[in-house]
């Protein structure tokens, strides 16, 4: 069953920067999709758009169908309900997302009281259960955020995201601020909860290795576009798009000490979304660009079974019926 279907999503901030351009994605219930790309490629904008959490004045076009209901046309009351019970989000840097002056138990209980209309005792019980599910003793409910470690706070954020039994969790760089050991624990926790509860997961990271380890499929973004997608390990080990290749080379294995992210072998910086290069936005940095790449943008096309890449070097042939069916079936 398709849980989430994003069609031709376009997000333009009030200042005129189009941070997400024509993104199509789909996610089956219980599956895990990773979204990778350098800082500024539009990953967080995409995550925020999915739950309509973008600042006022931002223009969003296309469709975001969650269980067939379009998030972009539904009333705000319904959007607020869907944000907890349909899909919820775990941000990076839990210290900033938690309220410093409220006990963590009260913060977890708040959406339960609001959206499940639970009694105070019922919400307290559920809060204790959620804390235990994320590996914290129920008694920690009385702690304030500053009394917890970074990893514990991120566990609390995950408990909060699960509070209203959502079907989809969006995790935006959930482990970026944590050290490697804690990062691995949190990833295992997310993996376990998603499997046990058959949740859909969208995990966003600049670290392709982490995503390849955690997710079924991967989408690589560049300058607001998905430029490559396919089965997670295949994309990580044998990327088809030159940008996907550079990103894979930057993150060969989980936990490798990459102090500052810069795809190896790539000169320059990602483009400013309000001043994109002509043609394929990647062409000024691309080691295999042709002259025509400066004029012609590339849309995703067949790049092997279940795989697509937006590059002129992909097979120009139209895939046969078998390949086309495979592509349609395995689009993330
Ligand atoms: N509120 C905003 N107003 C205007 N432009 C914005 C806003 N938020 C983000 N942008 C711009 O949109 C582009 C995409 O940003 P976004 O945060 O989505 O990228 P990202 O891939 O998540 O990067 P990071 O990993 O650094 O968070 C960037 O050029 C950014 O400067």
Automatic annotation (TrEMBL):
Give Gene Ontology CC terms.
plasma membrane
Family matches, as PROSITE patterns: ABC_TRANSPORTER_1, ABC_TRANSPORTER_2
Q: Kindly list the organism's lineage.
A: Bacteria, Bacillati, Actinomycetota, Actinomycetes, Kitasatosporales
Mainly localized where? membrane
Enumerate the InterPro entries for this protein: AAA+_ATPase, ABC_Ni/Peptide_Import, ABC_transporter-like_ATP-bd, ABC_transporter-like_CS, Oligopep_ABC_C, P-loop_NTPase
Pfam families in the record: ABC_tran, oligo_HPY
The record's subcellular location field reads: Cell membrane
Output the GO biological process annotations, alphabetical, semicolon-separated. Answer: peptide transport
Membrane disposition: Peripheral membrane protein
Molecular function as annotated in GO: ATP binding; ATP hydrolysis activity
Descriptive protein name: Peptide ABC transporter ATPase
Q: Which family does it belong to?
A: Belongs to the ABC transporter superfamily.
Swiss-Prot/TrEMBL keywords: ATP-binding, Cell membrane, Membrane, Nucleotide-binding, Transport
Q: Which organism is it from?
A: Streptomyces nodosus
């Amino acid at each position: 069953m398709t849980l989430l279907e994003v069609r031709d999503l376009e997000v333009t901030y009030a200042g005129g920067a189009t941070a997400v351009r024509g993104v199509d994605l789909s996610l089956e219930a219980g599956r895990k999709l990773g979204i990778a790309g350098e800082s500024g490629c539009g990953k967080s904008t995409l995550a925020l758009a999915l739950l309509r959490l973008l600042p006022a004045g931002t223009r969003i076009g296309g469709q975001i169908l969650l269980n067939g209901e379009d998030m972009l046309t539904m009333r705000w009351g319904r959007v607020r309900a869907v944000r907890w019970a349909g899909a919820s989000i775990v941000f990076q840097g839990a210290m900033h997302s938690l309220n410093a002056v409220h006990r963590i138990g009260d913060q977890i209980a708040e959406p339960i009281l609001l959206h499940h209309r639970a009694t105070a005792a019922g919400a307290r019980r559920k809060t204790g259960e959620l804390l235990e599910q994320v590996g914290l003793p129920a008694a920690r409910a009385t702690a304030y955020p500053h009394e917890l470690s970074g990893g514990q706070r991120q566990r609390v954020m995950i408990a909060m995201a699960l509070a209203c039994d959502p079907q989809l969790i969006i995790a935006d760089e959930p482990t970026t601020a944590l050290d490697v050991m804690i990062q691995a624990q949190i990833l295992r926790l997310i993996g376990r909860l998603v499997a046990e509860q058959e949740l859909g997961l969208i995990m966003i990271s600049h670290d392709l290795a982490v995503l390849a380890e955690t997710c079924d499929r991967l989408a690589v973004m560049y300058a607001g576009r998905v430029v490559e997608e396919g089965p997670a390990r295949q994309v990580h080990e044998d990327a088809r798009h030159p940008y996907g290749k550079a990103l894979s080379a930057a993150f060969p294995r989980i936990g490798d000490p990459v102090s500052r992210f810069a795809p190896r072998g790539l000169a320059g910086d990602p483009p400013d979304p309000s001043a994109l290069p002509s043609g394929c936005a990647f062409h000024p940095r691309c080691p295999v660009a042709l002259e025509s790449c400066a004029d012609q943008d590339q849309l995703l096309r067949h790049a092997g079974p279940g795989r697509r890449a937006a590059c002129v070097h992909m097979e120009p042939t139209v895939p046969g019926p078998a390949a086309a069916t495979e592509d349609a079936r395995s689009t993330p």
